[in-house]
Amino acid sequence: YGFCLYGTSYLIPYFLQSAAGYSPADSGAMQVPGGIILVLVIFSAGALCDRLSARAVTIGGLFLFALASIGFTFTTAVTGFWLVAAWFTLSRVAMGMLIPSTTVAAIQSVPPALLPYASTTMNFFMQLGGAVGINVLAILYQWRQEGHAITNVSTAAFEAFHECFWLAALLMLCALIPAVFICKSTQIEPASGSDASKIPSCP
Asked: How far apart are CA 148 and CA 155, in angstroms?
């Protein structure tokens, strides 16, 4: 999911400023509500993992991010500021759910002796996916924009932007498949004197 999170976080402000006519101030203002919501959701998502499960929160986050990505595919030159902000905010809600839930899922799925490896491996692949995502979406956007410009220069940037977000939506929907199989390792046992009820588990 790092591919989509980092890739779209780069692509959205770039597109708004380079093609949609937003000033840097307007582009930043559009992201403010999403940033505030992201902080609030991250704080509550950890508790939600305890109440439900990391699997349920991860599935919900993936679905919401896919929905937000699909919303961006309908962006046009006349799309209002607040509608763009709404889709961006929804994607930050999804991000706020995914960051803690995937961490919990990685940690709870391995025996205690492997916890350092699980955390390190998850962070490595998330950062790797992010680096790949930024580069792939940037190249794809530029390539498709040039291709669409051959037939219609005025809408080329928007059509390229839509295709990038269709890709993001597809990848997030595909990620639902492995997310369904997230489960706590049966080998994990609470330490002596610990409260086992605090360890999230699959329903």
From this structure: 8
DSSP-derived secondary structure for 25-84: HHHHHHHHHHHHHHHHHHHHHHHHHHHS-HHHHHHHHHHHHHHHHHHHTT--TT--HHHH
Residues 48-93: tens digit of each pLDDT: 888 888 889 999 999 999 999 999 999 888 888 999 999 999 999 9
The encoded tokens of residue 97 equal 């759910």
In the chain, % helix, strand, coil (3-state, to 5) comes to 80, 0, 20
Distance CA 115, CA 154 (A): 52
What is the C-alpha separation between 157 and 164, in angstroms, rounded?
A: 11
Residues 161 and 75 sit within 8 Å (Cβ to Cβ): yes
Q: Which two tokens stand for residue 64?
A: 């919401």
> What is the helix (H) or strand (E) element at residue 191, kind and residue range?
none
Note the pLDDT tens digit of each residue in 98-136: 988 888 887 877 787 777 777 788 888 888 988 999 999
Residue closest to 187 by CA, chosen among 134, 112, 119: 112
Element (H, E) at 174: helix 153-179
Between helix 2-18 and helix 153-179 the angle, nearest 10°, is 160
**For position 186, what pLDDT does the model report?**
54
Provide the pLDDT for residue 185.
56
